[in-house]
Amino acid sequence: MWRRALIGLVLLLVGAAAALAFWEPLTASASAPPASDYQPERVEIARDRFGVPHIFGKSDADVAYGVAYAHAEDDFETLQQVMAMTRGRAGALLGEEGARIDYVAALLDVRATSARDWPGLPADVRRLFDAYAAGLNHYAAKHPEEVALRGLFPVTGEDVVAGFILRSPFFFGLDSVLGDAVEAKPFAREGGPALADETKPVVRPLTPVGRDPDDNGSNAMAVAPARSTDGATRLVSNSHQPWTGSVAWYELVVHSDEGWDFAGATFPGAPYPFLGHNKYLGWTNTVNRPDLIDIYKLVLDDSGEAYRFDGEWRPLEKKRVWLKVKFGPFTLPVPRTVWRSVHGPVVKNDEGAFAIRYAGMDQADMVTQYYRLNKARDFAEWRAAMAGQGVPATNFIYADAKGNIGLFYNAMFPDRPQGYDWRGVLPGDQSAALWTETLPFGRVPALVNPRSGYVMNANNSPWVAAGPGDELDAAAFSPLLGVEEDMTNRAARLIDLFEASGQIDEARLKAIKYDTSYAKTGYAKAWIDRLLALDVKGDPALERAQALLRQWDWNLDGKGKGDALALMLLRPANRSHYQRRPAPDPMKTLKEVTVHLQKHFAGLDPRLGTVLRLRHGEGAARVDLPLDGGNDTIRASTLWDVEPDGRLKVRHGDSFIMFVTWDRDGRVRSESIQPFGAATTRPASPHYNDQAPLFVRHALKPVLFDPQALKASGARFYRP
Prior knowledge:
Among the domains are: 18-214, Penicillin Amidohydrolase, domain 1 (Orthogonal Bundle); 523-633, Aminohydrolase, alpha-helical knob region (Penicillin amidase (Acylase) alpha subunit, N-terminal domain), CATH 1.10.1400.10. The chain is 32% helix and 22% strand. It has 20 helices and 27 strands. A ten-stranded mixed β-sheet has the order 19-17-16-8-7-6-5-2-1-27, covered by helices on one side. Strands 3, 4, 20, 21, 22, 23, 24, 25 and 26 form a nine-stranded mixed β-sheet that branches. Strand 14 (345-349) and strand 15 form a beta hairpin. Helix 7 packs across helix 8 (157-167), helix 10 (366-375) runs antiparallel to helix 11 (379-387) and helix 16 packs antiparallel against helix 17 (586-601). The chain is globular, with a radius of gyration of 26 Å. It starts with a helix and ends with a strand.
């Protein structure tokens, strides 16, 4: 008996020792700090009256250091989450949801890519990223009580670059494809309809990394001098992003003595703005959805560890990874195996083994492209930076002081050979089906300086961008590009409004941006018709709902009857339309919405602003304000959470908004707004919610891009 007990104790101790050998808190180690190729004493941060940081430095690297420090002052919590993702430690910080991200990072071999590409990046780019990492390290060292994970700091420039590699492909649908592969679901694809049973749900477990699981969005507009009443060039940036988290916008302005002057917004974990303007030019982005992902079914041998390729058996690359997952007070290792073939990462499921190949795979060139775009001084330099093709996908809408405007359907299109169904699952045993190159930037659909005097995009097909007679010819582009054909209500409304507007002044452009109407066309019209055609006789509540819907004026401005009802009824239809799936059941939807409104609002026609809310914070820091717009209106309130009181708390939609104007003499000025404020995770800050009242009123604040105007405003200057 005692021998068995002793043996059991020994085995228990051996097991515990093995677990402790992998236990995250004991094995975590910090990166080596980056080299000191910047001078923090030359960094100065100014805060304007809304708390927006303006960072000054002698060099660009000095400024990047200040960007990191200022952002950490406002949102160190999210920055730590991003850094944990880049280092494979999201599970240790966020638990199971974070571990999924760590698994994907291992599957995509993110750290191998960053290790390979980091030494080859241009020296000025490496200096920028090292300086940014040093700024984070400086803040962490000064505020150790805020560090949430042992050994997370110091981080390096290479760690920051790894974050770009990890997050970039999730903006064009890799999250959906990986989710489908892991769950053995029919593959949902961008660039066209799904390939199999569209009634099955799509599993998207990776939302902390990239886009929202249900929707993308964004509006963008540019107006040329010939279409303006005053000869000005105008650009409207109207991105739709989550209002908090790792892909929430953070506003900033940067100035360096090396000629880097830029106002715009960035994501946590980036040393520069991703959109905005300098003195000479500006751009904004909207999500596009080309088919940039190909799926190959592999033929495996009996062992499951070799695949056939051109008649020969090749071993799958195999790596054992230990996901460090937080369980209550403990962080313990969970083993997983990741596989890779010549095609790319491999996922095994009950249907077989599938390799996934995607645009921009295994490269970090996007970090250079964004920096070069920030520093471009004219259209030629900007286009040269775009030609570097580091950013795998996203529309760029451009304008400049010279009066040029344009839409670029940017994507790293695979150079696919003819003869295969690229919308289907491809044979993984034929090298002929394996593309290895992408098409040059000159093959990207682009519309520059159309005669209409405007360009726009609202996550719709690039073939509709500037009005009748000024559109791109879809027939001029190969179907192998996989360009989407979708239209959104926002796009239809923008075209209608621009075509009806004649010459456009600043006030008219703002009215277009804040439009809250639905066009009586497309999926919205078809869906409303189906709801009104339902036989609801004998159910008084549904009869009243139909009568109210018939009176609705197709405008979610919060002024007419039936706005709240229409908002909630249209949301499921828009989700299905955007995901290219069958429309929901109209009777079920009508009943659910009717029950909800009666339960929480004692009737079917509460004011829209009573139902749709901007809510943020708790206690004295809380705001609770009415909103307008809907999930596919130009004034976008896209996604919401249903609160216990039945109100809809918006969490995604109009986020960072910027209006940029170059007057006829080329002088630039801009205005901007955020839903909350500059310090979204600091409730004690006066800038936690100070922009919210302006946001709900469609008001903007000035961007003090000119340093002299900033100083004259009474801004607070300090050094990190």
